[in-house]
Design a protein that fits this description.
Elements lengths: L1 E5 L8 H13 L4 E9 L24 E5 L3 H14 L3 E6 L5 H14 L3 E6 L11 H9 L4 E4 L2 H10 L5 E3 L15 H8 L6 E5 L8 H14 L3 E5 L6 H10 L6 E4 L5 H10 L2 E4 L8 H8 L4 E4 L4 H4 L6 E4 L4 H13 L3 H11 L5 H13 L3
Parallel strand pairs: 1-2, 1-4, 2-3, 4-5, 5-6, 6-7, 8-9, 8-11, 9-10, 11-12, 12-13
């Protein structure tokens, strides 16, 4: 089967690049796949991070054709031309943000006109985490040309049904990330490397934006440390004012219990932070699904998170972690205290090792193959 994919891979950094790279690698085990990656992704002025480039020593990459320039319509036409020449059975878009709405809409429209290629959109987020005026219109102009959709949560399926009437949608779990174990390392080694020897460590991982809800975890810390001696690692690049978080940490007098690492973590360092932690805490205010949870499960780490989007579909409350209401620091603190007080780490870790089998890349690829075969 011939498949074309549009999306990032190395040297572009981030979770979508990792996802798309692993997806293409998996598809290539059985199929001929052309990956049209980016020549230019976001305009630098619009990108909130320090850089879009992955400076990791150990990279996740795959063969690709870096022709897609988000600001150059000619490059979109080049992709259409190549799809017309090659005549794949399936074209896959990775949908994340309306920044790419016009580009994707034009490519999809022309592919529908000039080829018989079926179009599949993998929706990482149907809607934006932080609402944008007119976003529903941009979503519709892209989605109306798609033949199939894959979502990773029931919430996204519901959102999609509000944009497109009767979409041909499949739900598949977001696969786990196990490719960050570049160097074998246990908890003691990881903590020595970080020069942190606290008995109990909780980890917040990923970039910091309002919808991630980090402030509620910070607010929970005084209650947590009144019962359990813990260290909170905040690891990830701040995409908003870091000063407000640091001021709140000082106001709560919890500085010695919090370590802030404000930078994008290269691939070879990811394992250090996850292996050092006893539990991952993700206090999201809004979400559909989370690649960070799948990274945690890749390291067999339990997760405490909030009941938003599809997170409770992945984290089984009382089995692989705890799920609490969003914007509730007290509930978050109680979950962390319970986790350590009842010594749940071994039990939850064992459950994760059994549960994560359903989060394999093979399962996602089977769904894509069944979609491609529907036209026959």
């Amino acid at each position: 089967m011939k498949i074309c994919v549009i999306g990032p891979t190395y040297p572009w950094r981030g979770g979508i690049s990792h996802y798309n790279t692993l997806l293409v690698k998996g598809l290539r085990q059985k199929h001929a796949v052309r990956l049209f990656s980016f020549k230019r992704q976001y305009l630098n002025i619009l990108f909130p991070g320090k850089t879009q480039i992955d400076n990791s020593k150990y990279t996740l990459k795959t063969e690709n054709e870096p022709v897609f320039d988000s600001m150059n319509p000619w490059s979109w036409l080049v992709i259409v031309r190549e799809i017309k020449r090659w005549q794949p059975q399936l074209l896959i878009f990775n949908w994340v943000t309306i920044y790419f709405a016009v580009q994707f809409a034009m490519i999809a429209y022309l592919v529908k006109i000039f080829t018989k290629t079926k179009i599949l959109i993998i929706c990482h987020n149907v809607t934006q985490h932080e609402p944008i005026i007119g976003e529903r219109i941009f979503e519709w102009i892209v989605f109306k040309n798609a033949d199939y959709f894959i979502v990773h949560s029931e919430k996204d399926k519901q959102h999609l049904q509000k944009v497109i009437r009767n979409p041909n949608v499949y739900k598949a779990y977001h696969p786990i990330y196990e490719r960050f174990k570049f160097i074998p390392m246990d908890m003691n080694e990881a903590r020595k490397k970080l020069k942190i020897m606290d008995k109990n460590i909780i980890l917040y991982f990923g970039f910091v934006r309002p919808y991630k809800g980090l402030i509620y975890l910070i607010e929970a810390m005084p209650m947590i440390i009144s019962k359990i001696d813990v260290k909170l690692l905040i690891v990830g690049e701040f995409w908003e004012d870091k000063g407000s978080y640091l001021r709140r940490i000082r106001q709560l007098s919890i500085e010695k219990h919090v370590l802030v690492i404000d930078r994008y973590i290269p691939n070879e360092e990811v394992a250090v932070y996850f292996n050092a932690a006893n539990v991952i805490v993700l206090p999201y205010i809004s979400a559909t699904q989370s690649g960070i949870i799948q990274m945690a499960f890749g390291f067999n780490k339990p997760v405490i998170t909030t009941n938003v989007g599809g997170l409770s579909e992945v984290v089984k409350n009382g089995k692989t972690g705890y799920v609490v209401p969003p914007k509730d620091s007290k509930a978050l603190a109680e979950a962390v205290i319970r986790y350590f007080a009842e010594d749940k780490e071994k039990e939850f870790t064992k459950n994760i090792m059994e549960e994560k089998r359903k989060f394999s890349w093979k399962n996602l690829i089977k769904v894509i193959e069944s979609i491609a075969n529907e036209e026959n």
